[in-house]
Amino acid sequence: MRPLHGFADPFTGMWRLNTGGSQLPFEPPRSVVLQIAATEDAVSLTENSLDAAGAAEIVTIHARFDGLNYPVEGSALVDSFAIERLDRRTWKATGSRKGVLIFTELITLSEDGATFREDAETTLADGARATATLLYERQ
């Protein structure tokens, strides 16, 4: 992976979900910590979470910014993930399970780099579609 124009990618780092600042169509998780390592060409994501009931999940994704599907390890929600870089502060991603689209999201980094926001449309457990806004804070 090549560095982005010789500089560290602004999304690279550790992030924590701010459940109070997020708008979720389901019971919020107890905790979500996301580690991102991104370059110009690709991204690696590791998500450690505790759901509302306290069940732990560790999800790992390695994907290129080419819009193609890549495997997801450890997720109960999706088994493939695709991502594109729209610009230095904006990514567009999708997640699917067995070829069925589960979520689409637009990921936008704040001007100061302290937060990013995921505006998502997702499929709930009952099959209904819903929107969600997730706010992450840099740690």
How is this structure best described in words?
The chain has 139 residues and is mainly beta. Helices cover 0% and strands 62% of the residues. The chain has a 10-stranded antiparallel barrel with strand order 1-2-3-4-5-6-7-8-9-10. The protein is globular. The two termini are 24 Å apart. The mean pLDDT is 94.
Summarize the structure.
By secondary structure, this protein is mainly beta.
The general outline is globular
Distance between the termini: 24 Å
Q: Enumerate the spans where pLDDT stays under 50 for 5 or more consecutive residues.
A: none
Query: What is the helix content?
Result: under 10%
Mind summarizing the main beta sheet?
10 strands, antiparallel, barrel
Mean pLDDT: 94
- Helix-strand pattern: EEEEEEEEEE
State the total count of DSSP E strands. 10
Number of alpha- plus pi-helical segments: 0
Strand content is over 45%
SS-based class: mainly beta
CA gyration radius, whole angstroms: 14 Å
Strands, helices and their partners?
Layout: E1 13-23, E2 31-38, E3 42-50, E4 56-64, E5 70-73, E6 80-87, E7 90-97, E8 100-109, E9 115-123, E10 129-138
